[in-house]
Amino acid sequence: MTRQFLRVWMLGLTLIVLTGCGPTSLDKAMSRLDHRPDWKRHSKLDLPRHPAEKHLQGWVIVLDPGHGGQAHKKGFKRGPTGVREAEMNWRVGKLLERLLTDAGASVTLTRDGDEFVSLKDRAEVANNLARPDGGTGADLFISLHHNASSRESANFSSVWYHGEADWSERSLDVARYVAHHLGTQLRTNVAHTSPLMSDQLMYPGGFGVLRQSNVPALLCESSFFSNYDEEQRLRDADYNLREAYAIYLGLCEYAYGGRPTQSTPKVEQIDGTLRISTVLDDGLDKGWWGHERDRTLSSTINITLDGKRLVTHYDPKTKSVVAEVGADLAEIDGPSPHIIEIHHTNMFKHHNYPQRYSLVPEGGAGGGLAVKALGPVRAPAKE
Ligand SMILES: [Zn+2]
Predict the structure, then answer these.
(1) CA of residue 145 to ligand 1 center, whole Å
(2) What's the sign of the alpha-carbon dihedral 24, 28, 33, 39?
(3) For residue 190, what are the domain limits?
(4) In this model, does residue 17 exceed pLDDT 70?
(5) How many angstroms does the Cα of residue 50 sit away from the middle of ligand 1?
């Protein structure tokens, strides 16, 4: 017995000596920092399921692989050796669809293979989607593209939102995580410029798919197919998988930090006072330790009526917020319908959605008011 134990112990010791296993010393760890690899060297393709993917369960996501159906157009959206952007976008879309479906999300693609779909129709897929929970419209619309430049060396990752940063709070929350993971997984020229960009930098009306989307939307320009080396990587489905996985990781981390929302605001008119009230939901897991603590940043709570900020009273115990205006709605000048905006963020700095509601007098003897959720602000349509 003792001899057998000794034999196993000796074998273990021999293995440690031969393979160098066992804990690394501080000196050895320090010396690794003397020989750090170049940023551009890609790590091994490793695809573990992120434990936070459970927070994506039940999400309704529309993926929009850009372009398609235009292979006959000579040189249209092709790299230096002729690789088509539409094909790489498609492969990333299919791989991401699989990753998100495996996580329990409900995923719809805007095109089926190499077909032409107009920008408006792509956005309409997200706007009009019949949700499994009976509602209408996706939680998130993600358009998948790759970039091109006359500067051959250009190769950075960017994620685009619509219009002003103020119009796209939820899109920016998601875009931040996605952009950082794209840069890290694809080893593009990170920190070359902002990874988050407004689509109005390209066109006054922004990108057609983002402008016409009524749900939180973003557009990835993950890397540059006009760069020869990158084009060669982008023709490889394993590299496309690396990109899809980066977007998946970004979505898992975003979902982990929760999606704040609130009850549809209640609007009452009592003795010449208009009273707006709602109950906030921080969007975070109700089962977490410490969930009874306030996880909303109270400085971010803000209610406006027709763009004018109202004084709000927040009760962290009940999560209710109340704002009052000392006038009847009929006495308040403003657009028709009147617009209520509600903003708040949770401790992960994730913004609420929806943020805008229309307020319309219902007419009749009761003098009721109808409140309806609206999509984000969008640039005016082009002529
Ligand atoms: Zn494109």
Answers:
(1) 4
(2) negative
(3) 51-71+82-256
(4) no
(5) 29
